[in-house]
Amino acid sequence: xxxxxxxxxxxxxxxxxxxxxxxxxxxxxxxxxxxxxxxxxxxxxxxxxxxxxxxxxxxxxxxxxxxxxxxxxxxxxxxxxxxxxxxxxxxxxxxxxxxxxxxxxxxxxxxxxxxxxxxxxxxxxxxxxxxxxxxxxxxxxxxxxxxxxxxxxxxxxxxxxxxxxxxxxxxxxxxxxxxxxxxxxxxxxxxxxxxxxxxxxxxxxxxxxxxxxxxxxxxxxxxxxxxxxxxxxxxxxxxxxxxxxxxxxxxxxxxxxxxxxxxxxxxxxxxxxx
Length: 274
Hints:
- By secondary structure, this protein is mainly α.
- It contains 11 helices and no strands.
- The radius of gyration is 20 Å and the shape is globular.
- The relative contact order is 0.17.
């Protein structure tokens, strides 16, 4: 492995993280004052609910796939075949986990009684699923030292998100009030804000798919013997990963249940915002 290649790839990974932080700050700067404070808590409630489930959908697949494929990447045909199995495993988990999570969400009274959360849930489910799909598709980029492509994808996705978000916040619904529950316009505006996040990951998915295809063809192989062996093999790793973040996410979920915005609790959003 070339030292220059390693340095270049590391540089693009660091640059991507810095850009992600900057873009994230801009998005928060636009979104938080607009939704503030009740609807920002709704936004955070939906985000954290699916964050818990995303760990199930991943199940350590990305890390394991990257490690195992790295051992055989000199044989591109074999690498492609194994990559398709890992991709099939990821999509299988996405379909199962997110279908269950959305179904369970509508059994939580504080969620279904709030139209903002009730309508926002399926939009964010699609975003989270799209995020998990894009994540597995980027393996060829990391495997074959093309991380600059991922940074480009991230930048494009954030630009589209900010343009989409700014259009709704500053031009289409600049003065909408989110305190009136009977106001359909505010509900549409909230869903538009949620959809701006989905747009970002659709753009990233498309770009990552196009550039990854040039390295390894992205296909799905649903090899259930492989999938169940992978789940069994990754169980301990996944459990450690899940426990490391579950306690924090659980606190936010409990806060959203015990302090629902339908009751006008407008102070718990500070926890999420911080």
